[in-house]
Write a structure and sequence with these properties.
- The protein has about 475 residues and is mainly α.
- The chain has one domain.
- Strand 2 and strand 3 form a beta hairpin.
- Helix 6 packs antiparallel against helix 15.
- The longest helix is centred in the middle third of the chain and has 30 residues.
- The N and C termini lie far apart (about 55 Å).
């Protein structure tokens, strides 16, 4: 205990081992849903010959745990900050649904883009360039990207739950919820999670996922619903009978994912690959910076100028986590806003992060149980997190036309085109144009014009059919 107190400087932070431990457990419970949700999202895009869907889910879950633990340990021992990290919500959706499924890019190449982004992050963090880069992007895009991703997550989650369905006449419509047991259970779990969250219950999302899963299994065992309507399809044989093979023999071998990004570096389209790397970089860059500043302000870590001292150290944890994540088969790692729950419990040092990392590793023994979670239960997290992320619109100056148009396009283009990249690009293009129209040329930087010009070129090439 004495060694821990001395290493993490608990006394100078007016903390103790007990407080830091409780804070770490609290943060873990608040963000542990990612262990379930991230694999189900990425498995929609990652297909490995010879392995079933749930086996791939189990592989990605292990990769998620490893990448998270590595990043958190760097945060604990190098940065000495009480922040948790894991593959980011929104970035995993961009990886799966925009890059791989939407653009038709092989998942190995998408991992290669994540790896390149991680290396770039390590380099610019080491030389202290992140602060310079963050000043280049339009402020309305920075403040609106979270809300845009939130609506995108919300839309995908409702689709996966069967609440929203495709419609030829109106593009989308309300699903046949009353006759769809999975949709009914999904809505039950969604509102259960909302109630727990509103009551400020720690771990409300993970409790909602487990509660919904239990309800689904009870509906099957009591005969209220058929196994094909409420149970994970990978647990069912061809004749619809329940089989526990995936549970009793879980897939702990992740060799098909290890260093798969190396194959993804072959035969790439430079323009498309650059845009994908740029988008991963952009969203992760500002998501991490915003989270660090926000949680640090809550914990009283900022100096008199509103800056986080030695911010490059926690940023390095994000960079290393992202690089390792690409190596083990998962999307971009970022700092989690749920870290604020541990800070609220008194977490002030890296010991809190160390506890979070150890708990992530402990969940490796629970990998078989992931196969028991129905998809409609796991996607509850997307809807809940999506709604929480909408609070970002409060930081937008809607009275400023340049802000309103740029932020509005960023937020709406994402879900309407099923692409985070398109939303970001639209906002970046709009900002200098509107500022120029208002005669406020001094507010436009040369780099913003250059970015807008490049993205206009991208939209032309992309919509002309030259790239996928």
């Amino acid at each position: 205990m004495g060694a821990l107190e001395n290493y993490f400087g608990l006394a100078e932070h007016d903390s103790d081992v007990g407080t830091e431990t409780i804070a770490g457990v609290t943060t873990f419970l608040a963000m542990s849903y990612i262990i379930l949700v991230n694999p189900f999202i990425l498995a929609d895009a990652i297909e490995i010959p010879g392995y079933s869907y749930l086996q791939v889910v189990q592989m990605i879950a292990i990769g998620t745990i490893i990448a998270s633990a590595v990043a958190i340990f760097v945060m604990a021992f190098y940065a000495n900050r009480p922040f948790g990290l894991a593959p980011g919500m929104g970035l995993n959706v961009f990886f799966a649904y925009t890059v791989v499924i939407g653009m038709g890019i092989p998942w190995e190449t998408a991992l290669a883009a994540v790896f390149v982004e991680g290396i770039v992050f390590i380099v610019i963090t080491a030389i202290g360039a992140r602060e310079y880069v963050i000043r280049l992007f339009p402020e309305p895009v920075k403040f609106s990207v979270g809300a845009g991703i939130g609506i995108f997550l919300l839309f995908i989650g409702l689709q996966e739950m069967g609440v929203v369905v495709p419609d030829e006449a109106t593009a989308v419509a309300l699903g046949d919820i009353a006759t769809n047991p999975a949709a009914l259970l999904g809505l039950f779990g969604l509102f259960l999670t909302f109630v727990l969250w509103a009551r400020d219950v720690t771990g409300s999302i993970i409790l909602g996922i487990f509660g919904t899963s239990v309800a689904g299994w009870l509906a099957y065992f009591t005969g209220l619903a058929s196994p094909t309507s409420v149970l994970p399809t990978a647990l069912l044989s061809e004749d619809g009978q329940l089989s526990y093979a995936v549970v009793t023999s879980p897939q702990y071998d992740i060799s098909p994912l290890l260093f798969a990004f190396v194959d993804g570096l072959q035969d790439i389209d430079p323009l498309t690959f650059t845009l994908v790397v740029f988008t991963f970089f952009f969203v992760d860059f500002f998501d991490t910076a915003g989270t660090l500043i926000g949680v640090s302000q809550f914990g009283g870590f900022l100096d008199d100028d509103g800056n986080l001292p030695d911010i490059d150290k926690p940023l390095m944890a994000d960079a290393i986590g992202t690089t390792v994540g690409a190596m083990v088969g998962t999307s971009t790692v970022t700092t989690y806003v749920e870290s604020s729950t541990g800070v609220e419990e008194g977490g002030r040092t890296g010991l809190t992060a160390l506890v979070v990392g150890l708990l992530f590793l402990a969940t490796l023994v629970l990998i078989p149980l992931i196969a028991m979670i129905p998809a409609y239960a796991s996607f509850i997290a997307l809807v809940v997190v999506g709604i929480i992320m909408l609070q970002g619109v409060l930081d937008i100056d809607w009275d400023d036309p340049a802000w309103a148009v740029s932020a509005g396009l960023t937020i709406t283009i994402m879900p309407l085109t099923y692409s985070i990249a398109n939303g970001l690009a639209a906002g970046i293009i709009a900002f200098p144009i509107l500022k120029a129209a208002m005669g406020e040329f001094d507010d436009i930087r040369l780099g913003q014009w250059l970015m807008a010009a490049v993205l206009v070129g991208y939209f032309y090439v992309h919509t002309s059919g030259m790239i996928g």
